[in-house]
Every structure is written in structure tokens, then in C-alpha cells.
Design a protein that fits this description.
Oligomer: heterodimer
Helix content of chain A: 25-40%
Strand content of chain B: under 5%
CATH topology of chain B: Rna Polymerase Sigma Factor, Chain: A
Helix content of chain B: 55-70%
Number of strands of chain B: 0
Number of domains of chain B: 1
Distance between the termini of chain A: 54 Å
Number of strands of chain A: 18
Number of helices of chain B: 8
Chain lengths: ~350, ~190
């Protein structure tokens, strides 16, 4: 094949690729491995104050957990023991946010959010919670957020209402936020999640991408895209905000409206007519959200805007062949769906005892 | 047909990842050093796609230190490469969170980065220009292109290290190269 040289250096050399290799190869990584024996001691020293705080805290926390567990066994025998872990630091940004019944106010700028506890802000308070190796979550005004689990490699919050801004640096799939209408799974990113009083949500990804799932509906939301959710329905179809107003309006009604077949047909017509190159994200998702009669129209429009890669056929897509759908997604330039599949098993089931 | 492999790193060596990760978890720093040797170019390339070049070398060290600290959280040791790639992308995101948007991607390649290599200012400038053009491509294209053209990994090695499928890497390399040719041609036309 003509791209063999680009692929693995075999075949007829491509002079342009060779020139680029020569030019760019000068920037190649060429530093030997540091001595990790020595290197890991450095952060250990610089973090000694943190560790010296953490160890007594860990013993204290363990004692508190033991006491809490005994108390629960004695008084709440029928209740499951929650997965306790270290608390998250809560910083007051504004006003007097509350952790449980305790307000963080005045000079007390730092509180702790433990498993099962709720952080609540009113219309004049804001807070930020951080966990060293996971990330930072800013909690906006009029929000209610609960820490559900905090085990190693698995942090789970429940946003009952309000807005959070999450910046996550933990490996993907480790940080999960439940909402009344969908589960948001971080895949390495910065995002904003809003839940209104009815339980409807809106997720906006700023960097990286987020997965949204409920009731078998899954949405991948890359940077710059948004996705709405509705209780009992789950996530809608993600879209980029620069889509035309007619496109967005029709999409919202297509996803969440109680439409007759004729109305659905008409709404899909508007979506496909108004779809531009940047709307291929939406059209790909619509392939699996449309019915058998609608899907060929979606396929044709998507194929016109972003031709399917080799090995992906019309027939395969119309029967929703998972491998072909994934291959097409991977060719769209939004990242590899394998990332989602890799981590999917870690979060898809809510832990026992959570809603 | 004659087969020229771009790098001397056989894909088969990845078979030992699981054993190296397990040893590293038990405190074997030499095993972690082997993982560094194997994956440093991948980490370097992913960072080079996203952060200013002068910051890359330090961030490579930070990524490996973070990986060392979090190694206990890795569930599937065979997926070390994919896991490390994600930590790297997250660290790049975190770089912008901490430094703000003013940290420009177009920051020039530093002298230090080409230290020890034959120095030709015109070539260094052209390399920086080409790198800047590559970084204007979508991540899905710029990342494999940088791993291929800068770090010298072959397509199969990119797939093995990042945990992506061969087909995805091949398609993205191909499309990315096509877009890069177009952009470089446009630039050349604009200059003339």
C-alpha cells in the first residue's frame, strides 16, 4: 500500500515523510531514565509535612471509621456499611457553604466532606472540594452534592441539584458523578455539569471528553460539545453549540419530546438539512438513536459529511454493528472510543445502597 | 519487499509489561526504569502535542512520578501503556489549568531541547514551524503523527503502546498526514 512507509517504515520511502522525520526527529526524547530510587525520595521529602499530617489523620480517621461502624452495627443492623475512605477537603470560596449541618464560615475556610455527607451551597455561597490525586470540583451557588464512594481508584459524587465545575487529573473512569438523569464519567477532562430542580441536566465539556450513560443510552461529549439529560430518559444527543438554532431546537424536541411519527420525521428532516461538517458528532450518535426507518437517512447525511473509513459498510451501520460504529467514530477525530470501552466496566453499575 | 523498521524497539517486548508493572508495584525501581525506557517517547510525544516544548522534559518526569505513585490503582497491568497515555493527557490538561491559557502552544523550541544535536538555526526554526502546524491538527491526528515523525515509533508500536487498535492508528496517521501535507502546501503557497 502507498502508506506503508508512513505506517511502519516498509515499502517505497515517501520523500516528504522522510524529510519530516529528519526535521522533527531532532526533537525526539533522548534522555536516559532517571534513578527512580533517588527521584521518589525527593517528593517524599517535599511532601513530608503533608504526610506527617496525613498519617495521624489516617489513624484518627481509622478510629472514627471503626467507631462509626460499631455504632452503625449496633443501631442500624439492617443498614449496609458504606465504603468509607478519607474525606475530601472543602474550601469555602464565598458565603457559608454547609457540610451536613455544619456551616463553614468566618475564619474557618476549610472543612471535610466524608462519604455519605452532603455539601450544600445557598444562593450566596460557593465551595471547592479537592482530592490530591483525583482533581478539584468547584461547587456553584444553590447546589447540593453528596460524596457517595471514595475508594482507591473510584470516586463517586452525586449532584442532586446545582452546578459543579470539575477539573480531573485522575485516570479516566475513576471519577463518576451521578445525577438524577444520567451518570457522568470523566475520561480525562474539564467540564461543567448543571442539574435543575426537575432533575434535568446539562453537561458542557471544556477539555478532554466525558461519557454520559443511563438506560443503555450513551453519549460521548468531547471538548466544546454539550449534552442535555432528562429524568427517566437519560442523556440526549450531544452537539456543538455553534450548531444552528433550528438544528439545536429540533434536536432537543427529537430527543425529549413526545412526538408522533410524523413529527419525528419532520424534526429529523430539519436536523439533517441543517447539519454541517461540525455536526458529525451529533449525526454519529443519532445512528443508534434513530429507528430502522430513520437510520438510512442519518447514514446518508453523515456519509456525505464524513465518509466512513475502510471496512465500514452501509449495511453494517444500518444493523448497528458495534465494531463498525466504533471504527467510524474513531475516524471522526474526537478520540478513540476504545478508551470508553476500556473503562466502562468500572462504573456502569451504581454501588449498592446508592440511588 | 524489503522491510525497514524505523526504530529498534520490537513490539514483542511489550509482552513483558505486565511482569514489569507487577515488579514495580512491589518496589522494584529498576523495573519501573525499564517501563520508563519503553514509554518515555510515547509520553514525550503526547506532551509535545499539547504543551509548550520547553515544558515537555520536566513534565515527562512528573508524569512518570505520578504513574509510580498511582501504580497501585492500575487494575489491568497489561493496559499500562493506555493508562499512562491517559495520565499524560490529563497532566497536559492540568498544566493549562495551573498556568492559564496564556501559556502559548506556539512557544518556540528551546536551545536546551536540541542540546547535543547538530545545531543549525534554520533547521531548528523549520522544525519548530512544522511542529506548530502539526499541533493545529485535531488531537486524534497530531498525536500519532508526532509519535511517528518526532519520536520515531512505527504505527504498530504506537498502537501497542497507546492501547489503540491498529486500524485506528493507521487511519489517523494517514488522514493526519494528508491534512499536514495540505497545510504545509498552503503555507508554502502563502509564503511565495
Amino acid at each position: 500500500m502507498k502508506d506503508d512507509y508512513l505506517w511502519d517504515g516498509s515499502g517505497e520511502p515517501d520523500p516528504e515523510v522522510q524529510k519530516l522525520e529528519k526535521m522533527l526527529g531532532r526533537l525526539r526524547h533522548d534522555r536516559p531514565a532517571p534513578s527512580f530510587e533517588r527521584v521518589v525520595e525527593v517528593p517524599a521529602k517535599t511532601r513530608s509535612r503533608f504526610l506527617s499530617f496525613r498519617l495521624p489523620f489516617a489513624f484518627g480517621a481509622a478510629a472514627a471509621i471503626l467507631l462509626a461502624t460499631v455504632t452503625m452495627i449496633l443501631f442500624l443492623r439492617s443498614r449496609p456499611v458504606p465504603n468509607l475512605g478519607p474525606a475530601w477537603d472543602v474550601a469555602r470560596l464565598e458565603g457559608a457553604p454547609r457540610v451536613g449541618s455544619k456551616a463553614i464560615r468566618g475564619n474557618a475556610t476549610i472543612g471535610k466532606l466524608g462519604v455519605g455527607q452532603t455539601l450544600e451551597t445557598d444562593d450566596s455561597s460557593r465551595a471547592a472540594i479537592t482530592f490530591d490525586e483525583t482533581g478539584r470540583v468547584e461547587v456553584e451557588r444553590s447546589s447540593r452534592l453528596r460524596l457517595v464512594t471514595n475508594g482507591p481508584g473510584h470516586k463517586r459524587l452525586s449532584l442532586e441539584r446545582g452546578t459543579i465545575r470539575a477539573t480531573i487529573w485522575a485516570p479516566p473512569g475513576e471519577f463518576v458523578v451521578d445525577t438524577p438523569s444520567a451518570v457522568a464519567v470523566d475520561l480525562g477532562c474539564v467540564y461543567t455539569l448543571h442539574v435543575d430542580d426537575s432533575g434535568a441536566g446539562l453537561l458542557r465539556t471544556t477539555m478532554g471528553w466525558v461519557g454520559f450513560k443511563l438506560n443503555g443510552h450513551e453519549s460521548f461529549i468531547p471538548a466544546g460539545a454539550v449534552c442535555a439529560t432528562r429524568p427517566k430518559i437519560g442523556p440526549g444527543t450531544p452537539y456543538f453549540e455553534e450548531a444552528t438554532p433550528a438544528f439545536r431546537d429540533a434536536l432537543g424536541r427529537f430527543d425529549f419530546g413526545e412526538n408522533t411519527a410524523a413529527e419525528r420525521n419532520s424534526l429529523l428532516g430539519i436536523i439533517l438539512l441543517d447539519a454541517r461538517k461540525s455536526d458529525i458528532l451529533t449525526l454519529w450518535h443519532l445512528l443508534s438513536r434513530s429507528n430502522e426507518a430513520e437510520r438510512p437517512r442519518v447514514y446518508d447525511r453523515l456519509a456525505a459529511l464524513a465518509p466512513p473509513p475502510e471496512g465500514v459498510t452501509r449495511e453494517g451501520i444500518l444493523r448497528l454493528d458495534r465494531q463498525m460504529l466504533d471504527s467510524w467514530w474513531n475516524s471522526l477525530g474526537y478520540g478513540d472510543v476504545g478508551l470508553w470501552r476500556m473503562f466502562e466496566h468500572d462504573w456502569s453499575k451504581r454501588p449498592p445502597g446508592t440511588r | 519487499m524489503e522491510r525497514r523498521v524505523v526504530t529498534a524497539l520490537p513490539v514483542s517486548e511489550l509482552q513483558d509489561d505486565g511482569a514489569l508493572v507487577s515488579s514495580a508495584r512491589e518496589g522494584d525501581r529498576a523495573a519501573f526504569g525499564c517501563l520508563y525506557d519503553r514509554y518515555a517517547r510515547m509520553v514525550h510525544g503526547i506532551l509535545l502535542c499539547r504543551v509548550p516544548p520547553p515544558e515537555v522534559d520536566d513534565l515527562v518526569q512528573e508524569v512518570f512520578l505520578a504513574a509510580l505513585r498511582q501504580l497501585h490503582a492500575l487494575r489491568d497491568v497489561a493496559r499500562f501503556g493506555a493508562w499512562l497515555a491517559v495520565i499524560t493527557r490529563n497532566r497536559a490538561n492540568d498544566y493549562y489549568r495551573k498556568s492559564g491559557p496564556e501559556a502559548a502552544l506556539t512557544e518556540p523550541v528551546s536551545e536546551e531541547q536540541t542540546e547535543g544535536r547538530p545545531h543549525n538555526p534554520a533547521e531548528a526554526q523549520e522544525a519548530a514551524m512544522i511542529l506548530a502546524v502539526v499541533r493545529t491538527l485535531p488531537d486524534a491526528y497530531s498525536e500519532p503523527l508526532i509519535l511517528r515523525l518526532v519520536e520515531g515509533l512505527t504505527g504498530p508500536e504506537i498502537a501497542a503502546r497507546t492501547g489503540l487498535k491498529h486500524g485506528s492508528v493507521r487511519v489517523n496517521l494517514c488522514r493526519g498526514m494528508q491534512m499536514l501535507r495540505e497545510k504545509l502546501n498552503d503555507r508554502a503557497k502563502g509564503a511565495s
